[in-house]
TrEMBL record:
This is Ribosomal protein S18 acetylase RimI-like enzyme. The keyword Transferase applies. Residues 5-148 form the N-acetyltransferase domain. Gene3D superfamilies: 3.40.630.30. It holds the Pfam family Acetyltransf_1. Coiled coil: none annotated.
Length: 148
C-alpha cells in the first residue's frame, strides 16, 4: 500500500466514523445491499456494545478506509474471534489495505490469547479469494437459517 495510514481501535464512541465507509462498500457491487445510514449506525453500534467486541480501522488523513470488527467467544480450546464485518473502500482495494488490517487484527488478538478466527462470506464473492489468500479455509460447520 503506497498511502500512509494509521490503525485505530474501534470503540462504541468512534464506530459511527465508519458508517459511510460501510454503507459505501456494501451498497456497491458485488453486494448491492441497500443499507440506509440509520440502519448501519444501529448495526455497528450493536456490534460494538457486545462485551468482548474488538475492532480496528485503517485511516488515511483521519478518514477510515477499511474496518474489521467482531467479538471473542470462549471455546473448549481457548478464545475464538468471530469476524462479523470487514470492508475496504473501493479505492483502496487490491492495494494491501485489507491484508494490513487483517494482520493488525491478528496481532491484537494473538496478544489477547485468541487461538482462532472465523467468518462468513459468500463463496462466489471476491472476498472469498481474499480470505483464502490470508490462510482462511472452509470449515465443516454449515450455516443454517430460517425466516420468521
Amino acid at each position: 500500500m503506497t498511502q500512509p495510514f494509521a490503525t485505530v481501535a474501534l470503540t462504541a464512541e468512534n464506530i459511527a466514523d465508519c458508517v459511510d465507509l460501510y454503507q459505501g462498500v456494501f451498497n456497491a457491487p458485488p453486494w448491492n445491499d441497500g443499507w440506509e445510514h440509520a440502519a448501519v449506525q444501529e448495526r455497528l453500534a450493536a456490534f460494538m456494545a457486545f462485551p468482548t467486541a474488538r475492532g480496528l480501522a485503517l485511516q488515511v488523513e483521519g478518514a477510515p478506509v477499511a474496518m474489521v470488527l467482531g467479538w471473542k467467544e470462549r471455546w473448549v480450546n481457548g478464545w475464538t474471534f468471530h469476524i462479523k464485518e470487514m470492508c475496504v473502500a473501493g479505492s483502496m482495494q487490491r492495494q494491501g489495505a485489507g491484508a494490513a488490517l487483517m494482520q493488525a487484527l491478528e496481532d491484537v488478538l494473538r496478544a489477547e490469547g485468541v487461538v482462532s478466527l472465523n467468518l462468513q462470506t459468500l463463496e462466489e464473492a471476491p472476498a472469498f479469494g481474499f480470505y483464502e489468500a490470508l490462510g482462511y479455509r472452509k470449515g465443516r460447520v454449515v450455516m443454517l437459517g430460517k425466516l420468521l
